[in-house]
């Protein structure tokens, strides 16, 4: 339907579950909405349980660097 958001079919792979010192990876953008970007995999911890979310930078393939102010996870498990 027009104006309806597409549903993502796959949760983000959370690399920090396997390597808690993960700080860099290559990933694909799976969605963009306003000032939020969703990835297929990430090292960014979205926070929760009293822990703050990670911050940092994302470098796009063209070299542009984006600041990450906070990471969050949606009900669909996409970070």
Quick description:
This protein is 0% helix and 27% strand. It contains no helices and six strands.
* Percent range for β-strand residues: 25-35%
For the record, the count of structural domains works out to 1
Order of helices and strands: EEEEEE
Query: Span from first to last CA?
Result: 25 Å
Helix % is: under 10%
Total number of helices: 0
The oligomeric state is: single chain
Strand order of the largest sheet: 1-4
Instruction: Outline the low-pLDDT stretches.
Output: none
State the total count of DSSP E strands: 6
* Named CATH topology: Elongation Factor Tu (Ef-tu), domain 3
Q: What would CATH call the class?
A: Mainly Beta
Compute the CA-based radius of gyration. Answer: 13 Å
Q: Describe the biggest sheet?
A: 2 strands, parallel
Describe this structure in words.
0% of the residues lie in helices and 27% in strands. With 79 residues, it is mainly beta. The protein has a single domain, classed as Beta Barrel (Elongation Factor Tu (Ef-tu), domain 3), CATH 2.40.30.130. A hairpin with a 2-residue loop joins strand 2 and strand 3. It is globular.
């Amino acid at each position: 339907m027009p104006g309806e958001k597409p549903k993502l079919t796959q949760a983000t792979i959370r690399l920090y579950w396997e390597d808690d010192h993960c700080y860099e990876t290559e990933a694909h953008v799976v969605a963009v909405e306003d000032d939020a970007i969703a990835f297929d995999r990430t090292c960014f911890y979205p926070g929760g349980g009293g822990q703050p979310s990670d911050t940092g930078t994302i470098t796009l393939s063209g070299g542009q660097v984006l600041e990450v102010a906070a990471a969050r996870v949606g009900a669909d498990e996409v970070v």
